[in-house]
Amino acid sequence: MVGVTNKASVTTAQEAVIEVNEATFERDVLQRSQTTPVVIDFWAPWCGPCRVLGPTLERLAHEAGGSWVLAKINVDENPRLAQMFRVQGIPAVKAVYQGKIVDEFTGALPESQVRAWLKRVVPDPNADLLAMAQALEATNPAEAIARYRLILGQDPKNETALFNLGRLLALRGDPEGIVTLKQVPASSSFSSRATAGLAIANLVNAPAEPAEGSEGLYRQAAAAVRAGDYATAIEQLLTIVGRDRALRDDGARKALLALFALLGDDHPLVGPARRRLANLLF
């Protein structure tokens, strides 16, 4: 992924797709690429695959809101530009940043592959905000939630922000969290975790009033999760698994699995807790 300055944001929606020729190439591609990635689409009117890929690129360029610009070059009208870029077949797509080709592909790729390619060559304008939100999760989850909302306001399709927002809200016992987790697309890399995490609702919605025995421990675990004290919650749930699997239809084990899914395998508590749970079960 290439770096980019905030000057990219000045590109207007009308400039998302531009026609480029030999006379405008210096200004519209080389100079513009100093601050904004430019994706060149070498095409021709008679090219069938070009007519398939072109509309996809144009739609994605408008969708990107100025984070990159699509420059369309008709190879029949601009053969010297095609020769300069060593175009052997069309459609030929090349990403240019600061005057250099950073990546390219040839042929009419499906939209999913084009999107994946763009993620490699075009910087995510929300990357810094996303990193800040993730860093705040442990110390100030309310602020992290606010920042995830801000990201989604700018980029509603940001799956990382969507999952993390749903995850934090669900762990706090906010019903919006479950609704948000259900919005994670099935095609997302977060889909399995979001689905597995839905069961956390049974835990965090447990009554706050004290109770005796295993039910009391379960309610204490629920309060601990809502407060962000996951270590205490895990200890109490493991204790219940070890002595009372019948409670809430094996509810403690189900709650642990949901908690593991939402925290993620890279969380320092999850690995050891998974091993302890396995020892209790097997």
Structure in words:
This is Thioredoxin domain protein. Keywords: Disulfide bond, Electron transport, Redox-active center, Transport. InterPro entries: Thioredoxin-like_sf (IPR036249), Thioredoxin_CS (IPR017937), Thioredoxin_domain (IPR013766), TPR-like_helical_dom_sf (IPR011990). It is a single chain. The chain is α/β, with parallel strands linked by helices and 282 residues long. It folds into three domains: 6-121, Glutaredoxin (3-Layer(aba) Sandwich); 127-198, Serine Threonine Protein Phosphatase 5, Tetratricopeptide repeat, CATH 1.25.40; 201-281, no CATH class. It has 14 helices and five strands. The chain has helices spanning 25-31, 48-63, 79-84, 111-121, 127-136, 141-154, 159-171, 175-182, 191-197, 200-204, 213-226, 230-243, 251-263, 270-281; strands spanning 17-19, 38-43, 69-74, 92-97, 100-106. The protein has a five-stranded mixed β-sheet with strand order 1-3-2-4-5, with helices on both faces. Helix 7 (159-171) packs antiparallel against helix 8 (175-182), helix 9 (191-197) runs antiparallel to helix 13 and helix 12 packs parallel to helix 14 (270-281).
